Amino acid sequence: MNDLNKLYKAMLMSWGVAVKPDYQLVLNMEGVEIPLKVDGMNLYLPVSEVIEGNTMEKVFFHPACENITSKETEIFKIIRRLATVQLLTLFKKYPAVLVNIANGTQKRSWPQHVLDLLEPLKAVKRNVLKELSELCNQMQVEIDDNGTDRRFLHLKVSKGGGRSQGGTGQKVYYKTKPVFPFYNEVIKRLTQSEGQADNQTVELNGHSVSRAALKALAHLFQSVIPACQNPDDYTFESTNSAAARLTSYLGCYNEIAEQFNKIQNIFRAEFDKVNIYPIELSWTEQLEELPETYRQVPAMDYNTHNTQEEGEQQAKTVSSLGNMFSVNSNQHQQQQQVQNNNQAHNVQQNNQPQQPGYVDGYDTTVPPLVAGDRWLRYEIDTVNRNIIHHCINTMTNAPVYYYCSRFGNLIQRVEGQPNTAVSPNVGAMGGMGGVNLGMINPALLALQGLMPGGLAGLMGMGYQAAPTTAGTTSVVSDNSNGGAVFWN
Predict the structure, then answer these.
(1) DSSP class of residue 486?
(2) Does residue 302 contact residue 38 with C-beta atoms inside 8 Å?
(3) How crowded is residue 369: how many other Cβ atoms within 10 Å of its Cβ?
(4) What letter would DSSP give residue 390?
(5) Beta strand 201-204 with 236-238: parallel, antiparallel or unpaired?
(6) Model confidence pLDDT, tens digit, residues 104-123
(7) Is 26's pLDDT higher than 90?
(8) How far from each other are the two terminal CA atoms of the chain, in whole angstroms?
(9) Over the stretch 60-119, which tens digit does the pLDDT of each residue have?
(10) Which residues, listed in sequence order, are joined to residue 478 by a DSSP beta bridge?
(11) Where are the alpha helices (DSSP H) in 155-230?
């Protein structure tokens, strides 16, 4: 296992994710295994044993390869949920432990700031502690369906711009700032009810709660997570373009998690008694090595580019933990049912081009067709990572094949002899029936499989297939450069 995968494994395990013997990733929540999924496909650690095997219906965890211009990817959404669920789950356990310590025997060796932390909690009686528990259970990871923001913590990632405020003057690519929506609402309600007795009830997000419980919760927030009072001071900047969003986010997460651990370390024995232990953070030291180690694994789908606008994942809450860790992309919403046929899919055998859509991460949109070509169907060649659009030329009755990258960019148009059959598993570099594929630039084939957006996305140009004669490979030209030929 290379250094990058060791980092990923340590990171995931610190959030309660187990790596199974086949490298599938599952979250362990109170003895229940919850598979991590994207578009219904299981998530795996990107070790060579899995990548080099059958990757059908598998998605890989490789957030460090994210493109610097991308918005949040599906994998990053899972990271958000894993990190926040861990912190929220832990925070919910703190009130009972700290109230119990405050009402017990205090040590003379405790410094004044520790005594100041415990003093307000002495007034928390059983009924108020019950309200505290109910308040904590109201907190969520994402915004409610009705738009109510009850999030415990939101690590707000934004593109940096400008220069670092840390004195280095380096360019900032991303920065992450902690936001505490639920705490902010508690403070707002306390301010509005200033002067009222502690036993008076206050409305908070549609619930009635005593002012005493709100005061206790605000104190716990301020004691356990000091960052809630001055979040700007905990903004974390990323000044390296490689894995910029990831390192910025995890750097800020590390700051918050360390505050959780600091409280536990003060009262180590008491937390140990109830099986509450510090968050493992030693792996964060390896984040500085990501600009070098992220290349140890090639770019992976659902990690490099987003399929929806950043922040949309916060628009809905989820009804269960299983749903929370099963992320769907815009691609999945447009997917059509497909049949697996020896690593190729044959679907929609009709005479009309399909609407734009995605299947298993492949853009199956029909490319612009040469006059006289009629679209029949497509198939996905997972071996060569291409989409093959089957057509027929209505003037010659010859089969025609349009080869596209997995991102939908046209590679070539191949016209065969009349009545020529095509093997369902044909590859872009092999012969098929009576069709002559000609010589194809190997570097270009590598680009169309690995570079986001294919060659057209890389070069920022439009490509089209020029008319060809039967049995020959088409010429792909760049219209913006006077029809310069890239291969014959």
Answers:
(1) S
(2) yes
(3) 17
(4) E
(5) unpaired
(6) 887 878 889 899 999 999 98
(7) yes
(8) 42
(9) 999 999 988 888 899 999 999 999 999 999 999 999 999 999 988 878 788 898 999 999
(10) 463, 484
(11) 181-192, 211-224
